């Protein structure tokens, strides 16, 4: 028997796990001429142009799809496999945990040897729609983005040579790569290539779609999906007083732009210049990519450095006044949408209640109970996953 993606698994006859990649697309996708294509009600709506502030029936920005079921499922196993890290203590899922909204619940992520990064791990939900990645937007594709966590000294600390050798040495991974890339492996002597790894990881991450929350049901016309307080929170969110929707624009709840909002750093942390130095643009000193708010209730703490422990603290920051938390000596060009809305405590509470309606894990992928390398699944350095779903 084999462990097959998206469904229940079993052990091989000798008691060891066997693996066979799924031939069907994950939920939310339709198999069309061998490729998985996204299917969403939002595809029926018009473009973002002229939608106003937070229009409900607004179309999606461009997205990535078209990967094969086998490529997506191979990416799923690779995503959870510590084989990808230098010391086999970290996987992609260590910092992007499904039960934490594909973040890790930490203000600063932990890499190999317990090294702390300077920023938090952003959620991976709906990355198929993103035109830039990382908090400072420095990567233009999933393939470009993944090189830093895979090979960065403070993260998984592997090398391309070692990673490729590890995959090629695995008796289990070769047939899986052959299932995902049959044309390549039809040639004698073909071997696993790094670009195939990158494609598979990108395919899996592009399948992480969250567009079926209670908010979405309301947006599609089911008025009872939100209660009165949640609707009030939505009205605050969309208002020209709070102006939340001008940056966190539905349906992704992000306009994908870089913005300087002047959020304070945690105690003892130096000021993070954000996108400014990388772009050579002084007006973007302290700028960060506007994150999407999908599953935001699962991804505390908040902001690029995890400065705020709760959603209530995060929304309250915006009513504190334009530039009120900018460190002394910093001259930041605060985004013009950041002003002084002077929201009441009741309005802030309603906002938080509305943000909870963006939670949607209906298409959350299944965490495998075993990975092809045979290594234990890890949440972080020396922290194995003790509960698992069927593979």
How would you describe this protein?
The protein is mainly alpha-helical. The chain has 2 domains: 3-210, Cytochrome c-like domain (Cytochrome Bc1 Complex, Chain D, domain 2); 214-356, Cytochrome c-like domain (Cytochrome Bc1 Complex, Chain D, domain 2, Orthogonal Bundle). The protein is built from 13 helices and 8 strands. A hairpin with a 2-residue loop joins β3 (29-32) and β4. It is globular and about 65 Å long.
Uncertain spans: 1-16, 386-391
Alpha-carbon Rg, integer:
22 Å
CATH superfamily of the largest domain: Cytochrome c-like domain
Q: How would you write the strand order of the largest sheet?
A: 1-2
State the end-to-end distance.
13 Å
Assess the beta-strand content as a share of residues.
5-15%
Estimate the global geometry from the Cα principal axes.
Answer: globular
The third-level CATH topology of the largest domain is Cytochrome Bc1 Complex, Chain D, domain 2
List how many beta strands DSSP finds: 8
SSE order, one letter for each helix or strand:
EEEEHHHHHHHHHHEHEHHEE
Number of separate structural domains: 2
Helix content: 25-40%
Largest sheet: 2 strands, parallel
Mean pLDDT equals 90
CATH architecture descriptor name of the largest domain: Orthogonal Bundle
Q: Helical region count?
A: 13
């Amino acid at each position: 028997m084999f462990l097959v993606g998206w469904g229940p698994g079993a052990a091989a006859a000798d008691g060891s796990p066997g693996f066979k990649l799924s031939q069907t697309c994950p939920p939310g996708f339709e198999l069309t001429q061998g490729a998985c294509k996204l299917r969403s009600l939002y595809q029926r709506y018009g473009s973002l142009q002229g939608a106003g502030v937070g229009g409900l029936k607004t179309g999606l920005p461009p997205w990535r799809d078209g990967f094969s079921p086998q490529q997506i499922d191979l990416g799923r196993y690779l995503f959870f496999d510590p084989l990808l890290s230098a010391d086999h203590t970290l996987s992609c899922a260590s910092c992007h945990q499904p039960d934490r909204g594909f973040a890790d619940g930490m203000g600063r992520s932990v890499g190999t040897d317990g090294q702390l990064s300077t920023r938090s791990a952003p959620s991976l939900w709906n990355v198929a729609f993103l035109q830039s990645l990382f908090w400072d937007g420095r990567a233009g594709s999933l393939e470009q983005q993944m090189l830093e966590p895979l090979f960065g000294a403070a993260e998984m600390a592997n090398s391309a040579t070692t990673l490729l050798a590890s995959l090629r040495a695995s008796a289990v991974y070769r047939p899986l790569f052959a299932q995902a890339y049959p044309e390549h492996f039809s040639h004698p002597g073909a071997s696993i290539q790094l670009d195939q790894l990158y494609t598979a990881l990108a395919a899996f991450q592009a399948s992480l779609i969250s567009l079926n929350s209670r908010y979405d049901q309301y947006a599609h016309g089911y008025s009872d999906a939100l209660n009165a307080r949640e609707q009030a929170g939505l009205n605050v969110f969309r208002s020209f007083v709070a102006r939340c929707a001008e940056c966190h624009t539905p349906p992704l709840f992000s306009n994908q732009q870089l913005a300087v909002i002047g959020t304070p750093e945690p105690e003892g942390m130096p000021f993070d210049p954000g996108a400014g130095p990388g772009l050579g643009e002084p007006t973007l000193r302290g700028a960060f990519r506007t994150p999407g708010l999908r599953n935001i209730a699962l991804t505390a703490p908040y902001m690029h450095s995890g400065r705020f422990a709760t959603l209530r603290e995060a929304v309250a920051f915006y009513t504190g006044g334009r530039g009120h938390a900018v460190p002394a000596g910093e001259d930041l060009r605060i985004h013009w949408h950041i002003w002084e809305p002077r929201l009441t405590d009741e309005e802030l509470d309603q906002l938080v209640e509305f943000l909870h309606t963006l939670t949607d894990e209906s298409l959350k992928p299944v965490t495998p109970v075993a990975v092809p390398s045979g290594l234990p699944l890890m949440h972080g350095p020396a922290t194995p996953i003790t509960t698992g779903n069927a593979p």
